[in-house]
Hints:
Order of helices and strands: EEEHEE
CATH class: Alpha Beta
Largest sheet: 5 strands, mixed
Number of strands: 5
Strand order of the largest sheet: 1-2-3-4-5
CATH architecture: 3-Layer(aba) Sandwich
Oligomer: single chain
Shape: elongated
Distance between the termini: 24 Å
Amino acid sequence: MATNWRETRFELDIVARDGGVLVFVEVKASRKNVLGPPEIRVGREKRGRIAEAASEFVSRLEVLPSEMRFDVIAVTWGDGLRPRINHIRSAFTLDDI
């Protein structure tokens, strides 16, 4: 539905549909796992900002979704040419914030 969606103080990396579920995806990448995997950078504060942005996005829809999900895609670029991609479905819920 949208990539790199921005509105004033809000931003969402990816907004997609998975069947009837509206999915908000945060993408994090790093060159190596020196400080840990990229997904650990989606902490409580970041999850709160994503949830606020998702709320703003949903408020602009004509038809409200019956279900929403928050995913994280972690991309790690190692020494090889191919990245390691970890798609974490339902990485957090609104109750986690």
